[in-house]
Specification:
- The chain is mostly helical and about 290 residues long.
- The chain contains 13 helices and two strands, in the order ααααββααααααααα.
- The chain has helices at about 1-15, 20-30, 40-50, 60-85, 105-115, 125-135, 150-160, 170-175, 180-195, 205-230, 235-245, 250-275, 280-290, and strands at about 90, 100.
- A two-stranded antiparallel sheet has the order 1-2.
- α5 (about 105-115) packs antiparallel against α9 and α10 (about 205-230) crosses α12.
- It starts with a helix and ends with a helix.
């Protein structure tokens, strides 16, 4: 329950962090090679040709669905951690007789949480499909969709209901990279804890949460963006043929710019609320009884 409650604060933090880099990322990923010279060129052309409001295309579908998605992701994450502790994924804490979840256990918990969040009815690919189509509309002349509802209707009309689930397996592969996100987050937190007795020992737990969340997001996206490109753009073979190996990393620049503040803030709030709600006590209790 603590994980689901903490989601509310986490969602609030993410909501107020600028996220319109997503439109730039999508256009870099899905446009033919040579359309843009880079992220800055894409941004300038988008604003020049379509106004600043073009950066907010496709904002409604994720705004509706993210609360439920994050609730399943972070709420299930805590419960998977408890489950893995009870199944013996523990190790002794250095310099102590107490046990803790292993780094592998944290990664597996993130993996399972990522898969679980994909089962949310708001998340199942229709939100991504609609958002993607809206973001790719470049001019009023080429405008095909009047809004998210009209877009969804046209996709169903053209491809049937199953058209809203195109790329579902790719989405599962993409969300599997939460293994690196939460495994990396814990590894970084342990690294900060080793600073005791050094000139950097004054790094507080909340500050460590913030920095670890932002840096772990870098690892997540570096591992995840090839699957994200395949999910949004084409087959892996087609990407390789058109853009070479670099084609798998289209849109990485704006993604990383967005990733640090969004995830650092979200995990700072989430971990803080988990401490306030006593979730760490449940972890320690599970470890002591294992």
């Amino acid at each position: 329950m603590a994980g689901f409650v903490s989601l509310l604060g986490c969602r609030g933090a993410r909501r107020h962090i600028p996220t319109r880099f997503d439109t730039i990322k999508t256009r870099l990923q899905c446009s033919p090679p040579g359309t843009y010279k880079g992220a800055v060129d894409c941004l300038l052309k988008t604003v020049r040709n379509e106004s600043i409001f073009a950066l907010y295309k496709g904002a409604t579908p994720p705004a509706v669905g993210w609360a439920a998605i994050d609730s399943l992701l972070l709420g299930s994450l805590h419960n998977y951690r408890l489950f893995l502790i009870r199944k013996g994924f523990t190790e002794l804490t250095p310099g102590s007789d107490t046990k803790r979840l292993t780094l592998l256990g944290h990664g597996i918990a993130g993996l399972f949480a990522g898969w679980t969040s994909k089962l949310d009815l708001h998340e199942l690919n229709h939100r991504d499909i609609v958002k993607l189509q809206l973001q790719l509309q470049r001019t009023t002349v080429d405008r095909v969709y009047k809004g998210p509802i009209d877009c969804g209707r046209q996709v169903v009309r053209a491809h049937g209901v199953l058209g809203l689930w195109i790329g579902f397996t790719g989405s599962l592969a993409f969300r599997s990279n939460f293994f690196w996100m939460f495994g990396g987050f814990e590894a970084l937190m342990r690294g900060f804890s080793k600073l005791d007795g050094t000139p950097y020992a004054e790094v507080s737990t909340p500050t460590a949460n913030f920095l670890s969340g932002g840096l772990a997001a870098f690892g997540y996206w570096i591992m995840a963006i090839p699957a994200d490109n395949i999910k949004k753009y084409a087959t892996a073979r087609q990407i390789l043929a058109e853009g070479g190996f670099r084609g798998y990393y289209r849109g990485l620049g704006p993604t990383l710019l967005r990733a640090f503040p969004v995830n650092a803030s979200a995990l700072w709030v989430y971990e803080g609320l988990m401490r306030v709600l006593g979730a760490e006590k449940s972890i320690l209790t599970a470890c002591s009884t294992n």
